[in-house]
Amino acid sequence: METLLTILTGILVAVATYLILSRNVQKVVLGTAILSHAAHLLIMTMGKGLKSGSVPILGEGPAYVDPLPQALILTSIVISFAVTALLLVIAYRTFQETGTDNLYEWRDINDE
Amino acid sequence: MNGESIHDNRTAHLLLQFIENNSFIYIEMEDLILLTINLVIIIPLLAAALVPFLHKKNSKIHIGWFIFLIPLTLFILLLRYIPRIANGETLAYTVEWIPTYHINFTAYLDGLSLIFALLITGIGALVTIYSIYYLSSKENLIHFYTYLLLFMGAMLGVVFSDNMMVLYVFWELTSISSFLLIAFWYHRKQSRDGAQKSLLITVTGGIAMLVGFIMLYYMSGTMSVRGVISAVLSFQENPLFIPAMCLILLGAFTKSAQFPFHIWLPTAMEAPTPVSAYLHSATMVKAGIYLVARFTPVFGGEDTWFWLVTSVGLITLFWGSFTAVRQTDLKALLAYSTVSQLGMIMSMFGISSLALNSGFRAESVLFSQAAFAALFHLVNHSTFKGALFMVVGIVDHELGTRDIRRLGGLATLMPITFTIAIVGAFSMAGLPPFNGFLSKEMFFTAVLNAGNAGLSSAIPVVAWVASIFTFVYSMIFVFKTFLGTYKEEKLEHPAHEAPYGMLFSPIVLGSLVVLIFIFPNGLGENLLSPALAGIFPSLAAGENLGVHIALWHGFNTELMMTIGVVLGGILLYMTIRYWKNIYRLFPEHWSFNTLYGNILEQLEVVSRKITDFYMTGYLRDYMVYIYLFFILAVGGMVVFTQSYELEIAENAPISEFEWVVAIVMIIAALSILFAKSRLSAILLNSVLGYGVAIFFVLFRAPDLALTQTVVETVTTVLFLVAYYFLPEWKKEDTRSRSDKVNLAVSIGVGVIFTIIALAVQNGKLFSSISSYFENSYELAGGKNIVNTILSDFRAFDTMLEVVVLLIAGIGVYTLIKVKARKGDTTLEDE
């Protein structure tokens, strides 16, 4: 299971990298979103024994899965959501001002 | 060498007392006398700070008169030390500065530093008087005298400092003040260029010298020059010894305008003439000479030192005198002449180092005479070159030009100036009855000794040929300027004698030229012999060095050489129009100046090219650099340490359902790359998000699954909203070269990421700390372990995460609501 998930994560990272390298700002934002999926899955996979216990709520069983990665991921989800939202709005505003969503064209805009 | 007085450790104590009682009473008188050496350095610097205040209160009197008092006082103060120094006494006084790093403000007074200090203060006083008449009060005198005093203090610091770091500080201060003085008329482009060039060259050498000093400190463990000299035998075999020598010599050569670093000196002639006379003939350019003399006891025993110093000196001597002949500007002629004379002094110090060389022990006394000749010529050069610069300044000031082609026939109109010019130029050419004759004879003795010692017969030949050229340009200087036909129509002002105030300083210097010729031993015994003792501390027999000083004349080879110089020089001077074409062999664009200009230009062009090459301004390119670094550094580390391994034995079993979810996600991820419309890309992204949520369910993480579902939904909505406002994706050319690079980079990043993740999973080194959180009910009163971690055990994370959300919210709000009004953008543009 862990190996399968890790390979899945690697594919997500490759896809995210490819999107981030593109010249369309929307694709770049999409790439960051996918990158955060990959990161969350990876943190989960790295935890102690993926299915070797019950839900981490007291009274559910004799042994629990690792609760610490879950707490970390929960924090991370919220933060990456905030960043994605901000990035989208920045992309939207820049498009409004410049009339393009192409990063190569942004370079040539003289804003100084 | 008997009365060396060092008061290092008491200083801090004394200073403390001084601060506590705010009075000199507790400082003993003896310490006060010693402290004066430090004061000699500090006084000009303090005065430089006070110059602006002086000006406002006394605007009627030329402020130069107040400045004049400072070098005069210092000169008289230093004169009082001559008897003590002549007795072989040396003085040292230390004020602690950074004792932790052995950096202390130690002033050390011996014969060598006294010669230089007397030149600095004496010629400083004369130059000040001269500048009073040279510069009108319309000039920015505050700047001028501030820089001049700054330079004077720095130069005194250079010659008195015993601590190498302090020496370096003052050394750079001379470079900086010289830079300021050269660009005194900063509205002229040539002045700025000359200042920049001199700064670049001298500071480059200065930094090399600093590195050499640090090497010396590393080898010897002391910052003190005297300490290094006394410890030299213990580290002579160190591999850093020769590099340290070369770096320190680089500093000396750049400062003293030695070949090929001489190019800054002629362009520095854009400075006002008093500055040229003071800095660029008498004092600053001799800082490098001082350094060579000071470090001769350290490095003199090495063959490398002898060959470097002597050959560079001789090449400079020849090239300077050869080039001086072609100059048409009087100041440029004098500049090349200075270069040439400095080369001569340098080569003499090179020859004198043979006295310390183990291969020449028998003749050591003979060779040490070369250092005596060098010091003697150093003093002589300062006198006659100072006078000559002032003569040129007078001609320039009174006639409005210093171009030889426009001058002529001034002898009867400016008789006093003419006389001084003759005295200076004949001394420069090495003719009797002027002091240059004596030092030129001694120079010939030195090169003949070096030649006789079987080193190279080229040494005396080069010296002799260079002397002929020296004779030629000296004659050009006098006769083309003062004899011949008077061309009034080419002059801005009709010729007339200068005011006496302006003539005073050159007259004093001219008289010194004659006086030193008549009484050379007064100078020799009182100043030069003690200085020699400083250069050759190992030749303990000080009297031995003294015996030869009296032998300054006699019919010998040297005299024949001088006669040869005169005859050859007259011949060349008479036939100059026939052989002047030889200079066409060296066209203007072959010069070192052009080389320097090209180097400077190419440096700029190449660095701009490099920057333009990698700073493209495209986000994609910078991301590629980052990813490539990740692949090479992190991937390389994995390969290098061979830490990749795959262990699937401990994996949890995979159910069919999980296979389905994982495969769906892989397909979704890959199809994003091929998505034609962005709507499908956004939906595929949410497939990934919900897939992650399903995995969270499978891995017993209900809170995560809940959050992930909600967040994924909101994110998808956000993307869809953005979809409404943002334009349709343009089709990108997937066959382009950069796209293949992108693909390769992405696959590389993914593969290395996977390899590391797999390798890390198999390296569980210690068990998790998570069992502690299973006490959540006892410790935090909650049964949901994840929630107690978030809000109790690690609540700080949560608080800041909320702050992140808040800031993002504010950011979104401001971005959408607040827009620049029309006026604002124009304000920014201004």
Automatic annotation (TrEMBL), chain A:
<protein>
    <submittedName>
        <fullName>Na(+)/H(+) antiporter subunit C</fullName>
    </submittedName>
</protein>
<feature type="transmembrane region" description="Helical">
    <location>
        <begin position="6"/>
        <end position="21"/>
    </location>
</feature>
<dbReference type="Pfam" id="PF00420">
    <property type="entry name" value="Oxidored_q2"/>
</dbReference>
<comment type="similarity">
    <text>Belongs to the CPA3 antiporters (TC 2.A.63) subunit C family.</text>
</comment>
<keyword id="KW-1003">Cell membrane</keyword>
<feature type="transmembrane region" description="Helical">
    <location>
        <begin position="28"/>
        <end position="50"/>
    </location>
</feature>
<feature type="transmembrane region" description="Helical">
    <location>
        <begin position="70"/>
        <end position="92"/>
    </location>
</feature>
<dbReference type="GO" id="GO:0005886">
    <property type="term" value="C:plasma membrane"/>
</dbReference>
<dbReference type="InterPro" id="IPR039428">
    <property type="entry name" value="NUOK/Mnh_C1-like"/>
</dbReference>
<keyword id="KW-0472">Membrane</keyword>
<keyword id="KW-1133">Transmembrane helix</keyword>
<dbReference type="InterPro" id="IPR050601">
    <property type="entry name" value="CPA3_antiporter_subunitC"/>
</dbReference>
<keyword id="KW-0812">Transmembrane</keyword>
Automatic annotation (TrEMBL), chain B:
<feature type="transmembrane region" description="Helical">
    <location>
        <begin position="277"/>
        <end position="293"/>
    </location>
</feature>
<dbReference type="InterPro" id="IPR001750">
    <property type="entry name" value="ND/Mrp_TM"/>
</dbReference>
<comment type="similarity">
    <text>Belongs to the CPA3 antiporters (TC 2.A.63) subunit A family.</text>
</comment>
<keyword id="KW-1133">Transmembrane helix</keyword>
<feature type="transmembrane region" description="Helical">
    <location>
        <begin position="705"/>
        <end position="726"/>
    </location>
</feature>
<dbReference type="Pfam" id="PF20501">
    <property type="entry name" value="MbhE"/>
</dbReference>
<feature type="transmembrane region" description="Helical">
    <location>
        <begin position="624"/>
        <end position="644"/>
    </location>
</feature>
<feature type="transmembrane region" description="Helical">
    <location>
        <begin position="454"/>
        <end position="479"/>
    </location>
</feature>
<keyword id="KW-0472">Membrane</keyword>
<feature type="transmembrane region" description="Helical">
    <location>
        <begin position="559"/>
        <end position="576"/>
    </location>
</feature>
<feature type="transmembrane region" description="Helical">
    <location>
        <begin position="741"/>
        <end position="760"/>
    </location>
</feature>
<feature type="domain" description="NADH:quinone oxidoreductase/Mrp antiporter transmembrane">
    <location>
        <begin position="161"/>
        <end position="456"/>
    </location>
</feature>
<feature type="domain" description="MrpA C-terminal/MbhE">
    <location>
        <begin position="742"/>
        <end position="817"/>
    </location>
</feature>
<keyword id="KW-0813">Transport</keyword>
<keyword id="KW-0739">Sodium transport</keyword>
<feature type="transmembrane region" description="Helical">
    <location>
        <begin position="32"/>
        <end position="51"/>
    </location>
</feature>
<keyword id="KW-0050">Antiport</keyword>
<feature type="transmembrane region" description="Helical">
    <location>
        <begin position="500"/>
        <end position="519"/>
    </location>
</feature>
<feature type="domain" description="NADH-Ubiquinone oxidoreductase (complex I) chain 5 N-terminal">
    <location>
        <begin position="98"/>
        <end position="145"/>
    </location>
</feature>
<keyword id="KW-0375">Hydrogen ion transport</keyword>
<feature type="transmembrane region" description="Helical">
    <location>
        <begin position="166"/>
        <end position="186"/>
    </location>
</feature>
<feature type="domain" description="MrpA C-terminal/MbhD">
    <location>
        <begin position="663"/>
        <end position="728"/>
    </location>
</feature>
